[in-house]
Design brief:
homodimer, 382 residues, alpha/beta, Aspartate Aminotransferase, domain 1, Aspartate Aminotransferase, domain 2, 2 domains, three-stranded antiparallel sheet, 13 helices
Chain lengths: 382, 382
């Protein structure tokens, strides 16, 4: 027997309070009760997005929201600069290309953050303003790297390109100020730092993004932001909303408000630091350098001679702790620990303690207790 | 105090067993437990769709699935015959037009079913096979009319056009045989007869639809059927699935299997008959004639001098029974009773009993007990 720890970067563990809320009987999504709830939810989302603009809600996975961001602001043939630092940056570029954008990918090595200077240079070179949008992943889940989004936003300077941000695995876990940083489109999902089961997607658009939307000719119906905005003004949705997930989301937003958005961001940062200290104490190499370390997911190389998938298997079968593997060219090269959303200090400690034993069982030279000690020191200082 | 009855045509009331299932802690959607569950679910869906083809699953509202059906099989400029008998038929046509199809709408008066002869004539006149697809709504929720889908399928005859079916409010409630009737694309959602909270969409495609898919150039990424099919072969999804809704769906599919798909269809038909008998006993006019009566939703004209919205208000506030109103040109002209999914004889009886009192309170000349008596006779015969 063991207890389940879902230490993957989403869908993340969901608090019992939120699960309880999803369990409520359905209500009419065209009735007053729903409309009041939906209005409270969109108000709560505005706080989390740090925006005065509407936050639109769709029944969708995060990838659907990447598509929504693209098709709502661009037209076929538009030049797009896609800044990619991993799997999800590549996906964003691919979506824009699929809908006919002229995509230029600026790729950085996996495990590194994007360099704002490079973006600034590229944008400065675009004197006739051909670039209509810059696609950026805030937190790259595949490598455990967080981009310096404020710096990337500054790098755009006065260039009129829209800044379109995939904040799926960052919003609520990493600092993000939609309005203050002049982010034009920000999208995220329910299943990461927002502590809700997967199936809801969110999108905020700046005034400039709405202007672009009016001219955008990429085809859209389900993702049509205008239809969503019009319905939201009445506390409604253009199509059937995922009501029970919204019940959960309302409770999760309450929990986030109780903790405080700033405190949630600090918590994520400190848990990441504690975890990284633990890995380092075990002599494990981390994919991301400290300065670019994701607050929500950490990618780790196994010790020499130990397979990443074996570590995942023992952690899961012996201790009930589910970790994630590497994606694409990192498959079986790394393992990843998610610490996003409903994650606390004890989760970090138990993960490290179990990992010490796991590595030891797999023949690695490990001093039991050393990782927990290093993490404990970070936690005790906090 | 009252007890809540959600008598709207979706999202419908969800059985406690299904709500309980959605409440389970999240699991890793790339792990063996999930893969086994997802494989069981897709097998169960094949039974409900009556198809040997894959049934693909998306986090989406029903409208998203209409979009998925269109963009996966068609190319801009393709000629499409859209058979519309109401709001959702019009929406299907609009989606195809939005993505560049050359749409010819064959509209029938609201409250009437489509005439298969008219479709047969139109198709016969298309000698050079310009029509690439026929869009059909199986059950039109806005009017409470069910199309004779088997006859419409026959009306196509040997014409190579794909038959693309919106079965959002019919599958599980009305007879539908995907393979036997040679339906090429069938889409539905979780929140109707499948008794699961909203947020999941399903799509089955025939071999001919897959061939069309290979040539289709409408842009697609999130809805890309090939990506979904490839992932499903491994018990996975291309993007994060709505795991907790799938927990619920698995339980709902179990319930449907326990009852038997055929019995579910008979139950819906009989409940519709009992309800209609009750309305007729009150002298109320029904929008749909008996032969085209939907098994899942019934549209009713209020008695002279009584406003539809007033009836809805009293039913809701006094008795806790939520009804739906009319849409578009039928707004406040009719009210609609949903009897789709988790609905039983007692729900019909209580709705009629409360309606009798409501109409009486609103000044209509009603004999209390008369509707319940008429419905009771239908039920007793069953």
């Amino acid at each position: 027997m063991n207890k389940a720890y879902l230490m993957v970067p989403g869908p993340t563990a969901v608090p019992e309070r939120v699960l309880q809320a999803t369990h409520r009987p359905l209500v009419n999504h065209r009735g007053a009760l729903y409309e009041e709830m939906f209005s409270r939810i969109t108000a709560g989302l505005k706080t989390v997005f740090r925006t005065r603009q509407d936050v639109l809600v769709f029944p969708a996975a995060g990838t659907g929201m990447l598509e929504a961001a693209v098709v709502n602001t661009l037209s076929p043939g538009d030049k797009v600069l896609a800044v990619s630092i991993g799997v999800f940056g590549d996906r964003f570029a691919e979506i824009a290309a699929r809908f006919g954008a002229d995509v230029e990918v600026m790729a950085f090595p996996w495990g590194r953050a994007a360099e704002p200077e490079r973006v600034a240079e590229r944008v400065a070179a675009d004197k006739d303003h051909r670039i209509k949008a810059i696609l950026v992943t805030h937190n790259e889940t595949s490598t455990g790297v967080v981009n310096d989004l404020a710096a990337l936003a500054k790098a755009r300077g006065d260039h009129p390109a829209l800044l379109i941000v995939d904040a799926v695995s960052s919003l609520g876990a990493a600092d993000l100020a939609t309005d203050d940083w002049r982010l034009d489109v920000v999208v995220t999902g329910s299943q990461k730092a927002l502590m809700t089961p997967p199936g809801l997607g969110f999108m905020a658009m700046s005034e400039r993004a709405w202007t672009a939307n009016a001219q955008s000719t990429m085809p859209k119906f389900y993702w049509d932001a205008q239809a969503a905005k019009k319905a939201a003004a009445k506390g409604q949705n253009p199509y059937t909303p995922a009501v029970s997930l919204l019940f959960g989301l309302e409770e999760a937003l309450k929990m986030l408000a109780e903790e405080g958005l700033d405190n949630s961001i600090i918590r994520h940062k400190r848990l990441a630091e504690a975890l990284r200290a633990g890995f380092k104490a075990l002599g494990l190499k981390l994919l991301a350098e400290d300065a670019a370390a994701s607050p929500g997911v950490t990618a780790v190389f196994p010790p020499d001679g130990v397979e990443a998938k074996k570590i995942q298997k023992v952690m899961r079968e012996r201790f009930g702790i589910t970790l994630a593997g590497g994606q694409k060219q990192l498959e079986n090269k790394i393992f990843r620990v998610g610490h996003l959303g409903y994650v606390v200090e004890t989760d970090i400690l138990v993960t490290l303690a179990a990992l010490e034993i796991t590595l030891s069982l797999l023949g690695a030279n490990v001093e039991l207790g050393s990782a927990v000690k290093a993490a404990g020191q970070v936690i005790a200082e906090g």
